[in-house]
Amino acid sequence: MTNKDQSREMPFRLSRRQLVSGMASLGALAGGPIRHAFAQAPKRIIVPEGDFAPLPIAIPNFVAGTPSDGEVGVGVTQVITNNLKRSGLFAPIDQAAYIEKVVNIDAPPQFQNWKTINAQALVTGRMTRQPDGRLKAEFRLWDVNTAQQLAGQQYSTSPEYWRRIAHIVSDQIYERLTSEKGYFDSRVVFVDETGTKERRVKRLALMDQDGANVRYLTRGSDLVLTPRFSPSTQEITYMEFGQGDPRVYLLNIETGQREIVGNFPGMSFSPRFSPDGQRVIMSLQQGGNSNLFVMDLRSKSTMRLTDTPAIDTSPSYAPDGARLCFESDRGGKPQIYVMPAAGGPAQRISFGEGSYSTPVWSPRGDYIAFTKQGSGQFSIGIMKPDGSGERILTSGFHNEGPTFAPNGRVLMFFRDPGGNAGPSLFTVDISGRNEQRVPTPGFASDPAWSPLLS
Amino acid sequence: MKVDKTLVASVALHVVVIGWGLVSFSSKVFESVPEDTLPVDIISADQLAKIAAGMKSGKKENPKPLVEKVAEAKPVEDAVGKITEKAPVVTDTTPPPQPKPVEKPVEKKPDPPKPVAESKPKEEPKPIEKKPDPPTIDPIAEALKKEEKKPPKPQVQATTPPPPQPQKPKERTFDQSKIAALLDKRDPARQATTGETLNSNAALGLSKGKAADNSATWGALFQSQVERCWKKPYGGIESQNPEAAFSIRLKRDGTLEGMPIPEGTPATPYLRVYQESALRAIIECQPYNLPAAYFDEWKYFAPVFTERKI
Q1: By CB distance 3.0 to 4.6 Å, which of A136, B8, B160, B267 could disulfide with A156?
Q2: Are A411 and A277 in the same domain?
């Protein structure tokens, strides 16, 4: 099909308003000072507000450097393709459409063959088994139209970590083409739920952000809730109903070491790490009320942050550690408040209809995500830390527990459709455009995203 | 077998008519030639004015003044020999005439009617004022009530003709039948601008002003074509107002003569990605199908990719 044919079939995307504004700007530019300053400057044609569109990218299977590595090459390619596709920012082209088969990644590809299938970016790679048994991965990212290499890297690792290699390569591609930091090389801890609704077994589980490599961290004899990842270390903190009052625990994922955070009278719950991972902030029950306390994990010293006859809970630090947001019903319905991390007056930031809970400060610092409850619906939304720019990303019967990806661009939450079915995990980007279900072995709730592994 | 003649006639007629119809109404396949779409855009009067407006600083193609008629060579006048005295300037508002009519009315009451009554009889207004005076004195006599009534009657009869007359001069008479007299009967005319050489162009600027700027037409075509290929990178919801400008040269066939030259270096990683995406779009979407008539305009131009609300 020629370009001319396409142009006839393609719908005219510009709206009249855009055209008029474009033309008005044309007039303004032509008559403006720019024109006078550069008499020889070419005519400026404004191409305004193009629609956002995912980038068409071709990812042919990674070449096997050694004969036995064809399978892992295919696996890596699939993981990368899946990652980029799920991000919503890329449109991987079906391999069946490929004209050229990449054999040698050291020679530049025939870009015309990739142009023909409308690819704008091309990833070529190779997996090679080293003499010492390690796996070497190489990849190159090409710009098809300008015939330039945009990125190229090589990594080596133990063969069993090939998925991580794929995630790291995905992050490289994502970062180079979107200018945002990637988030694929990360994990998610969540509460795995099995059994009937009456006898639900809840276990802590850990998986890659794409749902692979699920691992269980607790056995399910005790009820666990609200796991939270440390923003800087591979540790999690969570609440567990043991014998007696629920307690906040700390668990090192790598070593399996587990300890109770403090020994307080009454219930302690909704813990979260400080940005440096050195402190845990949580709610302590005091009669019918609860207040916020922060505990230094090294010195075990505890500091009270709030003292109100209300329920203050779900604290979350800003990434710079200077402020924190939390949920409180001191004004009647639960709302979100922001206060200095060292204590001090709290300022209410949520003023919409309904009640707001589970605030989470983005690792980028630009937004606070929350669960909003009102008019029979649970919604996940974000707002700026000053309370402005509220935006609902998804809403329905029951959506809860947002957690940010390490780049602050994507949120994970759980959704319960109601009825006999159980909850499952979803991701949505902060524009609300791209919602994806995260595969889990069973029902899943309360996700918490880890920081980047590398 | 007896054949019904009418039936035969009917059948024959039907066959003839239908047969004729089959031949003459033979369905020719309608071939619609696909035509290139012409983008039509509605612009406001303001925008049209803007497009059609001239530029004061524009290139002056034609510095000569307008000349419609070649004038006869004027005799060179000897300016030195023709010295005349400067005549006193006479203006409409020369003071002497006005004070006079003003002063007179102050002195004598009956005078003001004079200028007004110049066209009409002067004496008539006076009797009106004078005659009413005696009646005011007359009523002193008690028995003369009847007599008073009598004299006024003749007075009224006598005076009735004058009163309307002085009123007329106060109100301007407007005679509809005489409107024609007020009109300028001369044919509308103007004098030809003369000069040594004929020059039909009245404007100082180029004969084609900005109105010949067809970039609205081919620019929109370019926009629609390049947008197909533009995969704008997702910059999140906090827009940085990105803008990426290039200068590009196109060949007659709509392909790029060389690589587009970006204007400036992007300041942030996002702007770099934004610029790269626009560059990819320009390259991928060639050749551009732009109207050949305006090749001179689009052979070299600067597409600006932007999200700025202008």
Answers
A1: A136
A2: yes
